Amino acid sequence: MPIIVSHNGKNASKLDPISFGLEDKLQQYIYDNPESIPLYDIRDDIQLLILAREFGTNSGPIDAVGIDHEGQLYLVETKLYKNPDKRTVVAQVLDYGASLWRTLNDFDDFLLQLNAHVQKKFGISATEKIQEYFSLSDDELPSVLEQMKINLDEGNFKFVVLMDSIEDRLKDLIVYMNQNSKFDIYGVELEYYQHESFEILIPKLYGAQVKKDVNTKKADSTFIGNDEFISAFSQIGLSKQIGEIIDTMNQMQTNPAETVNWEARRTPKNISFTLKLPQKTKQSLTISCSINGGKPSKTLDFWLYDKEIEQKTLESVKDILKTNVQPLQSTSQYGVVVKWSVKDFSQDSFITFCKDLSSRISS
Question: pTM for the complete prediction?
Answer without folding.
Answer: 0.61
